[in-house]
Amino acid sequence: MVAGGLCLCGLIRLLCSLLIPALFLSGILCVCVVVLLWGIRFWIQQRKKQLTSAGRDGKRPLLVAFFHPYCNAGGGGERVLWCAIRTLQKKYRNVTCVVYTGDRGVTGEEIVEGAFRRFSIKLTHPVKFVFLEKRYLVEASLYPHFTLLGQSLGSVFLGWEALLKCVPDVYIDSMGYAFTLPLFKYLGGCHVGCYVHYPTISTDMLSVVRNQDTRFNNAAFITNSPLFSRFKLVYYYFFAFMYGLVGSCSDVVMVNSSWTLNHILSLWRAGACTSVVYPPCDVQTFLDIPLEAEKSTCEYSIVSIGQFRPEKDHPLQIRAFAKLLKEKRLGQQPLLKLILIGGCRNQQDEERVDNLKCLCEELGVSNNVTFRINIPFEELKSHLAEATIGLHTMWNEHFGIGVVECMAAGTVILAHNSGGPKLDIVVPFEGHITGFLAENEDSYAERMAHILSLSPEKRLEIRENARRSVHRFSDQHFEETFLLSVEPLFK
Q: What single-letter DSSP state applies at residue 214?
């Protein structure tokens, strides 16, 4: 007993003798890190003075930089980018807008021309483009495992390249690379803001892994293994903690929907500086389609718009449509057509379309289902003008520009009962119904049968209500809310 006590006392004395030097070394290390970061910040500020030249009036313009590595793409995120730049140019005369991009195969003039061609957005002043060489670091294909973490860490290195090439006064992440925010705020000395289209990780993703549900982003071999599921859950919680940490650095946070708002508030806990700014949808183009009472009831078309990506859940559309045809809910049933309109980005998307066609054959609905891939815009408008129902099946779509476009075009929308469509878009307008929601194969079939059983006059009333409601998502409304949100960055 005595010997054991002496050994324990000796161990405690040894630990105490090691503790003080360890604390001392840790303190020195912390001081060195702080001095190093301060030195880097000072060097970057000096570099900023060297790189920035004065304007014609002798004053240095305010540099507002947007981090958008894929700015030459033609999606909704790019429409937000160019509308935001146009809005700032109209409001602030002393602002020079900068875009960090990885699109190295084109010139800046070609990018601007492409934005005008795709979105009819004409900028009032030139834009400075900073072309980045390391965009491959944020490509998902580079990280077959731990994709979220790999892309996020890759964005830090890409952000560092951007910061070295141009040090702005205001930095706005417009593509969802939140891990670049502390880099520009603490080392670049910038006011930082962000526009969040979709949280990199969400509480719903945590729930899917926790409940071991098989989804497109949660493979079956993981859901079938409690060990793998537990490990992935720990990884997700760690990433969610880091995501919340970097996101809370933002001075201004803009989100595109109430669904995104709820997730960002729970993860970033930055409610005081967070606001909803609906993305600008080109509703006027679709509002130009004449809205008339239906002339024929012998044929109905159901139209779906969306890229052929796994999360869009096109198989659900086909199965629900097959169930509708099989049960013949309409009695003397008119001819029904399902038209799937979308873009194929690569070979994987094309293979996905082939699989969908096989599913149609398997369910015996091939003659009633048409695929229209990468079609011109005028043909898209023509299909929407003739459609009775606009169909959407993506679970937890963060916003749903395609849903807005269907409503503006005059279809009766049937969307998934989740995400942006549920919380922001397919909601009553001035007390009147604007569309319908469903969740699974049965409910989609039931809702489609219900819509088709309505009188043409009732359907016209719903279509008119939906059209009036989409003005909330116009370019003008975006400009007003965007300027209100970013105002603190310019003070």
A: -
Helix 203-210 and helix 258-268, axial crossing angle in degrees, nearest 10: 80
pLDDT tens, 276-288? 999 998 888 888 8
Cα(first)–Cα(last) distance of the chain, in Å?
A: 71
Is a pLDDT exceeding 70 seen at residue 68?
yes
pLDDT exceeds cutoff 60 at 16: yes
Average pLDDT of span 18-28: 72
* C-alpha–C-alpha distance, residues 41 and 35, integer Å: 10
Within 8 A by CB and 6+ apart from 24, the residues are: none
Question: Among candidates 480, 462, 469, 350, which has minimal Cα distance to 411?
Answer: 462
| 3-state secondary structure (DSSP) of residue 341 | strand
- pLDDT-wise least confident of 173-177, 290-294, 471-475: 290-294
Predicted TM-score (pTM) of the model is 0.81
Q: Note the pLDDT tens digit of each residue in 121-152.
A: 899 899 999 999 999 999 988 888 888 999 99
What's the pLDDT at 330?
47
Which residues make Cβ contacts (< 8 Å) with residue 326, sequence separation at least 6?
Answer: none
- Kind and range of the H or E run holding 20: helix 2-51
Alpha-carbon dihedral sign for residues 302, 307, 312, 315: positive
> At how many degrees (to 10) do helices 76-91 and 108-119 cross?
100
**Whole-angstrom distance, CA of residue 359 vs CA of residue 302:** 18
The answer to whether residues 278 and 477 touch, using CB atoms and an 8 Å cutoff, is yes
Residues 448/324, Cβ–Cβ less than 8 Å: yes
98, 127 in Cβ contact below 8 A? yes
**Alpha helices (H) in 211-346, listed in sequence order:** 220-223, 226-247, 258-268, 283-287, 314-327
> Which pairs count as long-range contacts for 116-124, CB under 8 Å and 24+ apart, including other chains?
118/74, 118/78, 119/78, 119/79, 119/82, 119/83, 119/282, 120/282, 121/79, 121/82, 121/83, 121/86, 122/86, 123/82, 123/85, 123/86, 123/89, 124/86, 124/89, 124/90
Q: How far is CA 383 from CA 309, 370, 462, in A?
A: 21, 11, 19
CB 280 within 8 A of CB 357: no
Percent of the chain having pLDDT more than 70? 87
What are the residue ranges of helices labelled H in 120-217?
Answer: 147-165, 181-182, 203-210
Pair of tokens at residue 228: 């793998």
How far apart are alpha carbons 62 and 59 in whole angstroms?
9
